[in-house]
Amino acid sequence: MADYTPPLRDMRFVYHELLGCDDLAELPGFEEFTADLIDPILEEAGKICAEVLHPINRSGDEEGCRLENGVVRTPAGFPEAYRQFREGGWTAITCDPEYGGQGLPAAADVLVTEMICSANLSFGMYPGLSHGAYLALHSHGSEELKRAYLPKLVDGTWSGTMCLTEPHCGTDLGLLRTKAEPQDDGSFRVTGTKIFISAGEHDLTENIIHLVLARLPDAPKGSRGISLFVVPKFLPTAEGTPGERNGVMCSSIEHKMGIKASSTCVMNFDEAQGWLVGAPHKGLQAMFTMMNNERLAVGGQGLGLAEAAYQGSVAYARERLQGRSLTGTKAPDKPADPIIVHPDVRRMLLLQRAATEGCRAMAVWVAKELDKQERHPEPEVRKASEDFVALMTPIVKALFTDLGFENANLGMQVLGGHGYIREHGMEQYVRDARITQIYEGTNGIQALDLVGRKLGANGGRYLRRFFHPVAEYIEGHAETPEMAPYIAPLAKAFGRLQTATGTVAQRGLANPDEAGAAATDYMRLFGLTALGYLWARMAETAMAKSRESGDADGFYAAKQVTARFYMERVLPQTGALLSQIMAGGQTLMALDEAAF
Amino acid sequence: MADYTPPLRDMRFVYHELLGCDDLAELPGFEEFTADLIDPILEEAGKICAEVLHPINRSGDEEGCRLENGVVRTPAGFPEAYRQFREGGWTAITCDPEYGGQGLPAAADVLVTEMICSANLSFGMYPGLSHGAYLALHSHGSEELKRAYLPKLVDGTWSGTMCLTEPHCGTDLGLLRTKAEPQDDGSFRVTGTKIFISAGEHDLTENIIHLVLARLPDAPKGSRGISLFVVPKFLPTAEGTPGERNGVMCSSIEHKMGIKASSTCVMNFDEAQGWLVGAPHKGLQAMFTMMNNERLAVGGQGLGLAEAAYQGSVAYARERLQGRSLTGTKAPDKPADPIIVHPDVRRMLLLQRAATEGCRAMAVWVAKELDKQERHPEPEVRKASEDFVALMTPIVKALFTDLGFENANLGMQVLGGHGYIREHGMEQYVRDARITQIYEGTNGIQALDLVGRKLGANGGRYLRRFFHPVAEYIEGHAETPEMAPYIAPLAKAFGRLQTATGTVAQRGLANPDEAGAAATDYMRLFGLTALGYLWARMAETAMAKSRESGDADGFYAAKQVTARFYMERVLPQTGALLSQIMAGGQTLMALDEAAF
Q1: B511/A554 CB distance under 8 A
Q2: Residue A5 sits at the chain B interface (C-beta within 8 Å)
Q3: With 80 as the cut, is the pLDDT of residue B2 above it?
Q4: Taking every annotated instance into account, which residue ranges of this chain make up the domain Acyl-CoA dehydrogenase/oxidase N-terminal (chains A, B) (predicted)?
């Protein structure tokens, strides 16, 4: 397996140079997060990822999880790695200081998430899900629930889950059947079966806190009759230690294509004691707080795997000697040239690189707005940031995970047959990446969210948060000759996105199936255009920084080459996407179900 | 796991109605292969695939192969299934009747191959590799070798392998080190290590015949110094039974992402006795006979998995109830509508369908030309067919396997979380399909074959075998109003292909890296345009047949809808590909190796 090297240089570029995130320190609560604190945090995170989490990634995949008498054993090394992770404070970094957290800006946290997921996605699932449960409780729980659970979730001695899916319902949670019966003491008895529960049972923490969607007896049908409950594995004692065992059990674990060291459980709730979180029948809204955050985090998983695959590919392409350059021998002292001399290999490496660095920039861009949404003193700035984050969340989730999977497959193609066997670890990235396109709402569902809930909503207010700055940027650089190689293709892609937006909005009003028919292609068009905008900005920043302080290590020069590559070799996809969108939905709906 | 239903209706459409393969019966040796024999053969093949091979596909994946004391045990059911396969004559169908074969046209054999690979790709590897060895011996072996080995390979009591790859050389066979020392009796002693040897060791046959590339002591360096040897596991006795054990052993088997029931072996040759096949130092050419055939066969694997994934997706999309149609409830008697009502699900199903049926038509088209190449009485027809097959071989291999993998992934996306767990078998298709893009020359190597060896060769003679009929077809249908929805997009794609061809040929002459930079995109552009041509023809045939004999089962109507879908939703990709090609290779080559 290739080593993992935290891409700190590029992270600093994105955080400090490209997006100026140091100004986040001006927001209340973020005062201490100046560059001299952010950089060491990223370094330390990189260290534990490279030295503790990455070495058990492949062995964890080989070994997988085992269910023994209702207890899930994680693979060798996982409990010890978790102990170090927890003791290092990594479960607490973005949490509320009131409950023991460190309050790190999301703009830096996404980079930590990226590194964890590069190093060991399966491991990252445990604290990742836990953070989702933390958020739901933090946003919607009563003071009593918060005091009981948040400090433990923050310090990582306990972990959390999200229990949504049931055998007959995933996307359509309105169908769910799990029941909650009110008790005299104000608690509830929760009964039902949940499937696909990540981290539902494991041996990393002393207690597991389930956030469970269920129906109250008087619940209206469908998705407006769902409430959210907190159901601990062990009922907390008055002293805050794990007490009596609750009626929740893991009855089996799934055999999956990948993320094998992450336990995916079938959870049976049998009159388990739980407490209502938020208002009755408002569970879905409460869950969505957490799901939006999880969707951004899943985007970070895609990014992490994209980076890991890129690193593995480059290492192999430099070492593997095979054939000679078509333009003459490049390594005369060796029996063959390294395969990195071949243009088609470089094409694959640059596709990976353009995707990874582009997504990293987008991740921090969106996360910075999330920080402003939560901390900015001016309400209109908060609102604008909230709109932007709402708009970009489905794009980050779907685009990053699609590109993560594409990167892992490009990596396997660079490695050839050696990529298909387990030894190099590349095939694990492919298998691990594949789930990210599915969970937390399939990428098709993300696309429907974009066209259905974001595109036309509030008279296009969400959209303007993206369209206005991009239009201004293009206009503002139209006369800058050195930016021409970037602005011209970006303007073309942006024009296509504008055309598609108008068409999809108009057609979708008349016939919602038209919006559905366009959704996936529209989301890709949007995502690629957004990356185009960021690549133009990255090229501009690289030029400016290079003029300012030179380019001793060639970092800024490489950035500009990758930007050109993106414009020449990726952005043209937007033309095909526009044509596909304009074709409309008629042909899709023409066949009877029986004709398939 | 979803059932497998042999797509016999579509196969008959392609073979008889679209491509008129019944006229193959006019060729010498094919006299008996009229429709009344072809159809029952396909039906019988479908039966053994659906009833014998498919039921052990998932169990075979779960169990995998085991190496015990140098012997590989295939999974439960494999030896028995192989016995039935062999006794049914399926190892012999396309072989030379002189050695016990049945001489089936390749045009029908590709459909049998497709079904085997739909049902159980791992199983198909054993007879598939064996057929490669048969071909190499049949084309290049001495009479004595042929008499000794071919009847056993044909009747399937023995099997064969292709031993090319070594740890340090895959694509670049010029680096290979395995040695062959001549002996006084005219035989050779072969010593060396081969890796990634499919079916190198197993328990299905009583003997295994290795075709091995090695160097003679006086061999020139590089790829012009490689000879081909036949090295049996057991030396045949005078009676033709397996005799003394030869010095070849399986030292380990690979742990792979997929095709786990296919044994992938490290083979150690230790002074193993072998015999030269063909002329000294001409082994690579001899191997290429077999490799071209294997490349078409691997294309058939991609096609088979594309079909299997499509079937699994459709079955799930019809059964899974989730949400309601955006245009109003479609199944009021059910708690939710089947997901096939959603346009984005239909988009995925139609992408799968368009790929599968398009590739099936292309497979038979190319295979029919292969039959003409070998059997047509007129030399100029044979030559024309040979050119066409040479041109299309890399496209079939790469395009079909790329689309097979894409189809399997679309299938997983249709199934959502249920696709990621093993139960439904869809994730196995993804894992199994992935290798087909790599082995027998990665798809990048296929692209280099296309632009490097086929595009400019012989003054463009290869290309004309495709360009002329397509240009004529477009011209001939320019005035047919009912064909306009197909001809207009096809003409656009074809124009792009012509532009790209001229550009790549011209730039590649000046700088071979320019050809390499364009290769993968060019191949995709070529492949999609070729599918566009076939989809236009399929639409035309469907219209004609429908007028002629009605369309009681809606088959012809569905064909036309799928053709329109292909034109509207797939063919636009050609525009992006052309832009990417026109961008040239400069940016690809701009970065120093160290800058990656």
Answers
A1: no
A2: no
A3: no
A4: 77-156
